[in-house]
Specification:
The complex is a heterotrimer of chains A (104), B (552) and C (299). Chain A is α+β, with helices and mostly antiparallel strands and 104 residues long. Chain A has one domain (2-100): Ribosomal Protein S5, domain 2, CATH 3.30.230. Chain A contains two helices and five strands, in the order E-E-E-E-H-E-H. Chain A has helices at residues 56-69, 86-100, and strands at residues 2-8, 21-24, 31-37, 44-50, 75-81. In chain A, a hairpin with a 6-residue loop joins strand 2 (21-24) and strand 3. The longest helix of chain A has 15 residues, at 86-100. Chain A is globular. The N and C termini of chain A lie far apart (33 Å). Chain B folds into two domains: 18-210, Glutaconate Coenzyme A-transferase; 225-532, Rossmann fold, CATH 3.40.50.10470. In chain B, strand 10, helix 9 and strand 11 (283-285) form a beta-alpha-beta unit. The radius of gyration of chain B is 25 Å and the shape is globular. Chain C is of the alpha/beta class and 299 residues long. In chain C, strand 4 (102-107), helix 3 and strand 5 (141-145) form a beta-alpha-beta unit. Chain C has a domain at 13-173 and 213-236: 2-enoyl-CoA Hydratase, Chain A, domain 1 (Alpha-Beta Complex), CATH 3.90.226.10. Chain C starts with 12 loop residues before the first helix and ends with a helix. Classes of the chains: A alpha+beta (104), B alpha/beta (552), C alpha/beta (299). Chains B and C meet through helix 20 of B and helix 6 of C.
Chain lengths: 104, 552, 299
């Protein structure tokens, strides 16, 4: 298992309505994503546990892209990953944002 | 200078007559008992013969292939095999045992690794690797078979053959062989008084043998809807809204795969909601894939011509004669060559692949194995011999001409590659250099084995969007267009963001939102059928999936 | 055609609970944010799930308070690890205190998680013990089986310790899985890839005809919900007599059908008309075909 922990941001014009919750399941090629609000000066903290090693750059690129697109801020986003492709990761993050938007 | 008067112009006919005389004692008229097959083959096959072993995509003359591979190499050797598909172990045993030494073929799928090994060991001298249409074309040029071993469903005592739904390549093989005085030996599942219909006339056939077991047919075109992912559904939505609709694609070919199955399964739902029934996908060249059932039943697909059949679909196809090509007996007749021709000259091909480089060249070649091309390039290529016009062909042609500044207007076929940027186990689809180059070196090939050339590709579709390569003016633009949809692969991360933004502004790259595709709708709820059981229901219980696909 | 019905099979554990119970009534115990995950999997290079593959909590079913557990089929095959098992045991123990109208167990599992074999096996016995405590307290324990893993292994045994079982046609119940049987007995005895055979032998329709399942429903969450509602308040006595009766019934079954090589022959022996078409019949038709069997055999 490889764990990555890093911060992204701060976001200039953040969406402050995004609440907490879990989406996804840890099946093969899949992942679960946990959103937890936290006071991070408009930054986002990603904690990723993955069974596939050596894709640090990819994870940084995907998460940064999503954080920018959805204007994420003040969230700890924890991911348990079982080999999902960036396509699936992006989809899951989008689903999380849509589900938890307005939760705060 | 004319040939001397003694010159013989009928050597083949004389030689065939001699062989048939030798074979007569091993047959009762045309009918050969299974236990006499070895003796018959030794009687009618001579060293150096060009031999076709049928060798289709799905149907194989397995009994005859096995018998051929067991011949005495001291008596018969140096056979030249001209066969479209090498699928069975016996197809390579015949080389390993020294009965055959030369090979011209199209596809080797599962036998790819062993084939590569035998070539390296000098056991096989490969003439060339072809596509299906090329090899069958050469049956009528310089590679005519002397003896063909074919497979049929049934025969009568006169040698009339019924090949039924799985006719596949048999007509091409039979015609090429029979009309150059060749010898055709057919293995059949049963010998009957009257065949349901005559697919190959008895006049063409020299011998018929009932095989101890029916020839096995692999169900390779069945895709379980339960395995279709959200990403594939997203890409399918983009294909329908971003390609089929604006180009008004009514005639097309789907390469087999889960990606195209996803398209088929959202026609009755997503395409219906866009008002596209009757406007797209009216005519298709493709095997009778079970995932087409909902699209047929809901009135999308009006006509389908098939290269082969698919296990379990026989009764459904029989009950839809206005859609499929069924004979007077009621059962379908597939025909690989005609299906490929129809597909080649249709308006769109779409399929998937394993690797794509930055110019859009794609290959399924992987190291240490030779798989060949099959028929994919016949479908997935520009059809420069085409002259008849249609809306999509003219539109794509116009767009192409604008990009290149060409002064001679012509149409252009839509050739689409549909891939996820990463495959299973985070293996990237996009690469700077195809493995095909390494394979070319390792196996001393003249060319890197490319399945679809980038020059022929009009669009690449990934989860990130659509890249319209035919709208690119030069290789540099094309490279950025590819990188612009290569997602987070190393190839994608190397993109020149300014160049990609510029391409997007010009519509050369389209993201889902540019096409009006709502990503949040890309769920399995969009599938008209989510399971094999759903497909059975859609078919009114006519579809009978093979046991391995059932969960009830 | 499809889309109108909500497939139980397709849904995740969380979605099944959300669609089964009264709207917005579910309250999760030990939610993922508390991070009770397996201590064993990371050591073995396996990713964890923050709920260890089982969702537990309480809610309302047609206004009645229920406790509910749903195994997540996609995580480790729904298998029982240490935390997973402890959550299920804890839920059952809570039931004895809280006295809900029922405990609903949505089982979708291959059984014990081999990565945590010892802990998983111990958990199975703890779960069984807890089930009996719940039943002793007069609270019905209702099992719902309709997922892709079926209900196998030690949890297959647990399922038959409960009061009632609702199964769909796609659901399966057994102890040893098809691959294990083939490996142990050979492919001539049992070909695991012959899925039609697997479902004839272990699937919902066969279980229903044999009386192992009480109700059979189509693959639809609403059908499962209605069936569960109908079983609220219907506890089965857990007495020496009832156990002896069951033993007698099992012995009788062994004797009657010992010569049958395939489930189709059993169904014929039971008097099911057109037994060969049982697998192909939709549920309403199947219920008609099997009505007299249920009446005569399992009243």
């Amino acid at each position: 298992m490889q764990t990555l922990e890093f911060e992204v941001g701060p976001c200039a014009n953040p969406d402050r309505s995004i609440g907490s919750g879990l989406v996804g399941v840890v099946g093969s090629g899949n992942l679960e994503v946990l959103f937890e609000p936290a006071d991070l000066n408009d930054k986002v903290k990603f904690v990723i546990a993955t069974s596939v090693h050596g894709f640090d750059e990819t994870w940084h690129a995907v998460t940064r892209s999503c954080a920018e697109r959805y204007r994420l801020a003040n969230l700890v986003i924890t991911i348990n990953d079982a080999g999902a492709t960036p396509a699936v990761v992006s989809l899951r993050l989008m689903q999380a944002v849509e589900e938890f938007r307005g939760g705060l | 200078m004319k040939m001397s008067p003694d010159f013989h112009w009928d050597t083949l006919a004389r030689n065939t007559a001699t062989r048939l005389k030798r074979g007569a004692s091993h047959a009762n008229g045309k009918v050969v008992a299974a236990e006499n097959i070895a003796a018959l083959l030794h009687a009618v096959i001579e060293s150096g013969d060009r031999v076709c072993v049928e060798g289709n995509n799905q149907k194989h003359a397995d009994f005859l292939a096995s018998a051929l591979s067991k011949m005495d190499a001291n008596l018969v050797h140096d056979l030249h095999i001209i066969q479209s598909n090498l699928a069975l172990a016996s197809h390579l045993d015949v080389f390993e045992r020294g009965v055959a030494s030369r090979l011209d073929f199209c596809y080797s799928g599962d036998q790819g690794v062993r084939l590569a090994r035998l070539i390296k060991a000098g056991k096989i001298n490969v003439g060339a690797i072809h596509t299906y249409l090329e090899l069958y074309g050469r049956y009528f040029m310089d590679l005519t078979p002397r003896v063909s071993l074919i497979a049929a469903q049934s025969a009568d005592a006169n040698g009339n053959l019924y090949t039924g739904p799985n006719t596949e390549d048999t007509p091409a093989v039979a015609e090429g062989t029979a009309f150059k005085n060749g010898i055709i030996i057919a293995q059949v599942n049963e010998i009957v008084d009257t065949v349901p219909r005559v697919d190959v006339p008895g006049d063409w056939v020299s011998y018929v043998v009932q095989a101890p077991k029916p020839h096995y047919i692999e169900p390779i075109f069945t895709r379980d809807p339960a395995q279709i992912t959200e990403t594939q559904i997203l890409m399918a939505m983009m294909v329908i809204k971003g390609l089929y609709a604006p180009y008004q694609v009514t005639r097309l070919n789907h390469g087999i795969g889960f990606d195209t199955a996803a398209i088929e399964l959202i026609l009755p739902t997503y395409a219906e909601s866009l008002g596209l029934r009757g406007k797209i996908c009216n005519y298709m060249t493709v095997n009778p894939c079970p995932t087409l059932i909902p699209a047929i039943e809901s009135g999308f697909v009006k006509g389908i011509h098939c290269a082969g059949s698919e296990l379990g679909m026989e009764e459904y196809v029989r009950a839809r004669p206005d859609v499929f090509f069924n004979g007077p007996d009621g059962s379908m007749r597939s025909n690989r060559v005609f299906c490929q021709i129809a597909g080649h000259y249709s308006d769109l091909f779409i399929g998937s692949t394993l690797q794509v480089d930055t110019q859009g060249n794609s290959s399924t070649a992987t190291l240490n194995r030779i798989t060949g091309f099959g028929g994919a390039p016949n479908f997935g290529s520009e059809s420069r011999a085409r002259r008849h016009v249609s809306y999509p062909w003219l539109k794509a042609g116009e767009e192409s001409a604008q990009a290149t500044g060409s002064t001679m207007p012509r149409g252009r076929k839509l050739v689409v590659q549909m891939v996820e940027s990463f495959r299973e186990k985070m293996s990237p689809t996009f690469t700077e250099k195809l493995d095909a180059w390494q394979l070319m070196e390792d196996l001393s090939l003249e060319l890197p084995p490319v399945m679809v050339y980038g020059d022929d590709v009009t669009q690449i579709v990934t989860e990130e969007g659509i890249a319209h390569l035919h709208k690119c003016s030069n290789p540099q633009e094309r490279e950025q267009a590819v990188r612009g949809v290569a997602g987070f692969t190393a190839v994608g991360l190397k993109r020149d963001q300014r160049a990609v933004d510029n391409l997007r502004d010009r519509g050369v790259i389209q993201r889902p939102e540019d096409i009006g595709v709502d990503v949040s709708l890309a769920t399995r709820d969009l599938l008209a059928a989510k399971s094999m059981k759903d497909l059975v229901r859609w078919s009114g219980n006519l579809y009978q999936p093979p046991n391995r696909f059932r969960n009830w | 055609m499809s889309g109108a019905h909500k497939s139980f099979l397709e849904r995740t554990a969380r979605q099944r609970i959300a669609d089964l119970l009264d709207a917005d009534s579910f309250m999760e115990f030990l939610p993922p944010s508390e991070r009770h995950f397996s201590p064993h999997l990371p050591v073995l290079g396996q990713p964890v799930a923050f709920d260890d593959g089982i969702v537990i909590g309480d809610g309302f079913l047609a206004g009645a308070k229920v406790l509910i557990a749903a195994q997540e089929p996609a995580f480790m095959g729904g298998s029982v690890g240490e935390i997973h098992g402890a959550k299920l045991t804890g839920l059952l123990e809570r039931a004895v205190q809280q006295r809900p109208a029922a405990v609903l167990l949505l089982l979708d599992t291959g059984g014990v998680r081999l990565h945590e074999a010892n802990a998983g096996l111990i958990a199975i016995s703890e779960i069984q013990r807890a089930v009996f405590d719940v039943r002793q307290a007069g609270i019905p324990v209702i099992v719902l089986i309709g997922g892709s893993n079926g209900c196998y292994g030690g949890i297959g045994i647990v399922a038959k310790c409960c009061d009632h079982m609702i199964i769909s046609e796609e659901g399966r119940l057994s102890v040893s899985g098809p691959e294990v049987i083939e490996a142990a007995k050979g492919v001539e005895e049992f070909d695991a890839r012959d899925r039609a055979l697997v479902w004839r032998t272990m699937g919902g329709k066969h279980r229903y005809l044999m009386g192992d399942a009480d109700l059979i429903v189509p693959d639809d969450v609403n059908a499962f919900r209605d069936a569960a509602i109908s079983l609220l308040g219907a506890s089965r006595p857990l007495t020496l007599e009832s156990v002896m009766q069951e033993h007698a019934a099992l012995q009788d079954r062994m004797q009657r059908f010992s010569d049958c090589a395939d489930a189709t022959q059993i169904w014929q022996a039971l008097g099911v008309a057109d037994a060969k078409n049982v697998p192909l019949a939709e549920i309403p038709e199947f219920l008609e075909m099997s009505a007299h069997v249920r009446r005569e055999e399992h009243a």
